[in-house]
Amino acid sequence: MAIVVGLLGVAFVALGVTIFRYLRSTSLLLERIEAHHPDLWIDLGEPRVVRLNMGHTTIQPIGPFLGWMLRPAAPGLDPELARMKERSRRLFRIGLVGLLAWALAFLVLAHLPIHFA
Questions:
Q1: Could you state, in chain order, the average pLDDT of each consecutive group of 10 residues for the chain (117 residues)?
Q2: What residue segments make up the domains of the chain, in order of their start?
Q3: Do 116 and 107 meet the contact criterion of CB atoms below 8 Å apart?
Q4: Which of 24, 49, 84, 98 has a Cα at 20 to 30 A from 113?
Q5: What are the phi and psi torsion angles at 45 (to 5°)?
Q6: Phi, psi of 34 (to 5 degrees)
Q7: Are the beta carbons of 99 and 16 closer than 8 angstroms?
């Protein structure tokens, strides 16, 4: 059981690293869109990374940007922008699947009987 809990802890740290990489990748993607593709930036609702209290960040407005990011890159998109978009898209999916898998494993373990020797 201790090994499983240890693996769950390692998975949690890996998930945190993935989420951090996603947030950084998305921030760089937004900076590139704003600097090099002003028409696209306006079409997406002029999204910006907003710093909230206690170090949390969000993108506002998130809806149009997230919808655009999760769709495959359109033909003719700037190759560097397409690469950055694909990286953010991949990290988003990995993070989401990882979070769901970790939460499911945690819930399963939480319902197992624990026997102390």
A1: 80 91 93 94 92 82 93 90 95 94 85 66
A2: 2-110
A3: no
A4: 98
A5: 90, 20
A6: -65, -40
A7: no
pLDDT tens per residue, range 98-113: 999 988 988 888 777 7
Query: How far apart, in Å, do the first and last CA atoms of the chain sit?
Result: 12
The reported pLDDT for the residue numbered 58 is 84
Token representation of residue 43:
């079409």
Cα–Cα dist 35/41, whole Å: 9
Question: What whole-number percentage of the chain has pLDDT above 70?
Answer: 96
What's this model's pTM, rounded to 2 decimal places?
Answer: 0.83
- Residue 23 CA, distance from chain mean position: 6
Q: What is the DSSP annotation of the chain? A: -HHHHHHHHHHHHHHHHHHHHHHHHHHHHHHHHHHH-HHHHHHTT--EEEE-GGG-EEEESHHHHHHHHHSPPPTT--HHHHHHHHHHHHHHHHHHHHHHHHHHHHHHHHTS-----
